[in-house]
């Protein structure tokens, strides 16, 4: 089989156009991803836990177990908590509370750092500051805990 001869300048032009299109596509996708705040609950594990909670944001984190009935029943409410907090972020972009979850039955190293004794367990984490939530498992109470504690964190940031 014979291949057609390609003019080097045509090949160079073709390569440049393909590279430009690829670069623009990747740049646009990255810009769209950055412009959209995350929605829902972010799954945290050994690969991304430390980098996520140290990213400068405040994190509401649930430690759960797939076999835990309380966790399973609460999952839709926790998803709503996440979407509510992300909705607040849309209204006030400087106020960002991320929402994550850790499978405590599979992530023993992370779980042991927080001395988890039962599931579900909830923590608000900002850098090295950690506060455990021990209130009702309701949408209103969890959102209030996250936002009030966030306000306290902001006051500390501004004073320090």
From TrEMBL:
Q: Record's Pfam families? A: Thioredoxin (PF00085)
Which biological process terms from the Gene Ontology are attached to this UniProt entry? Answer: response to endoplasmic reticulum stress
Q: Which domain of life is it from?
A: Eukaryota
Record-linked InterPro entries:
Thioredoxin-like_sf, Thioredoxin_CS, Thioredoxin_domain
One of the record's GO cellular component terms: endoplasmic reticulum lumen
What molecular function terms (GO) are annotated for this protein? protein-disulfide reductase activity
Query: What is this protein's name?
Result: Thioredoxin domain-containing protein
List, for all copies, the residue spans of the domain called Thioredoxin.
Answer: 24-160
Determine if Signal is one of this entry's keywords.
Answer: yes
**Secretion signal, residue range per the UniProt entry:** 1-31
């Amino acid at each position: 089989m014979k291949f057609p001869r390609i003019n080097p300048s045509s090949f160079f032009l073709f390569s440049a156009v393909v590279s430009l299109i690829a670069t623009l596509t990747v740049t646009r996708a990255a810009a769209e991803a950055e412009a959209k705040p995350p929605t829902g609950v972010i799954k945290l594990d050994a690969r991304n836990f430390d980098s996520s909670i140290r990213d400068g944001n405040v994190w509401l984190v649930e430690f759960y177990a797939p076999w835990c009935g309380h966790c399973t029943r609460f999952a839709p409410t926790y998803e709503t908590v996440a979407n509510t907090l992300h909705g607040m972020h849309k209204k006030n972009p400087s106020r960002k509370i991320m929402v994550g979850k850790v499978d405590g039955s599979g992530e023993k190293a992370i779980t042991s750092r927080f001395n988890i004794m039962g599931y579900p367990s909830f923590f608000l984490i900002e850098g090295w500051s950690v506060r455990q939530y021990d209130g009702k498992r309701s949408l209103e109470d969890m959102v209030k805990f996250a936002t009030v504690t966030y306000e306290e964190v902001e006051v500390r940031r501004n004073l320090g």
